[in-house]
Amino acid sequence: MEKIPEAQTPLTDRWLAYFAERGHTGVRRIGAGVEGVVYRLGGGRVAKVWSSRPPADFELTRQVYADIARHPLPFSTPEILDVEDHQGVLVTYERELPGVSMRVDSAQADFERGVSAHHSDALLGVLRGLASVPATNAMRQLTVQGDDRPLWRDHDCFRTALAALVARAAARHGSALAAHVPDFDVGVERTRETLHSLPDAPVTAIHGDLVPPNIHVDSAGRPVAVLDFGFYTTAGDPAFEAAVTAAIWDMYGPHAAEHTAQLTRLFARELGYSPATLTAYQAAYALTTYDLFGLDDHDGHFRWCTQQLRRNAVFST
């Protein structure tokens, strides 16, 4: 959710009056995005006024939030406390999350050449925390963005569910990706075979989109909140979370490839994950998200996915 400077906050806003009439004092509009507008209500709560209807699995998402929030973690996570319909507009009341974004997205500013120790430590803390949250039935029922069915439907393990997702995603618009990636069909099959061959792993909560703005830190750089679950949230192997986080920390900067390699090595060493497993998961992520925003080299995410696949040791061997 994009933060709005106070100077840009509208002087007249019927929702400010609405929340004030409901007993909230000092209400402020603090953010806006595609889904709606967020207001700080005080007392540790915010309200989100939706600009469109929520996703069809909104109640399922609410349950997933609750499942994660009830698990003791060293950082806060979203929790929907109440929901109402006001004259056909959905309003959700949620826990206010502390801290500030770890840093801006790499599309907005170039990152330094190396990943700093305090950023690495913060990422490790978040990964360890989420890996401690057991998967729930609600998490297994979620559909990742771009797909047409729950990831776990007809599957009893993450690796086979992900391999099936790779096949569906490649079939959606694979010809567009194949135009930029050599031996595309062979690489897809190689990735699926590798996923099927992975060993059994714990099944935990997966955020799936731990870009820097989705991690809030305090003044000392410690993670105090993780937000914006939903893009690729599911139940899965915590090594998948680590692999994706290493790849998306810096997607567009001049040192992006170095940062991915550095963080992949760090997570393998500190968290005990096989480097080959992390590499396979990075290929799977690129193959399942490449078409979500555009279908040619003009789209930054599509271009990033092609670059990932061309240098991925599992996909392009």
TrEMBL record:
<dbReference type="Pfam" id="PF01636">
    <property type="entry name" value="APH"/>
</dbReference>
<feature type="domain" description="Aminoglycoside phosphotransferase">
    <location>
        <begin position="27"/>
        <end position="251"/>
    </location>
</feature>
<dbReference type="InterPro" id="IPR011009">
    <property type="entry name" value="Kinase-like_dom_sf"/>
</dbReference>
<protein>
    <recommendedName>
        <fullName>Aminoglycoside phosphotransferase domain-containing protein</fullName>
    </recommendedName>
</protein>
<dbReference type="InterPro" id="IPR002575">
    <property type="entry name" value="Aminoglycoside_PTrfase"/>
</dbReference>
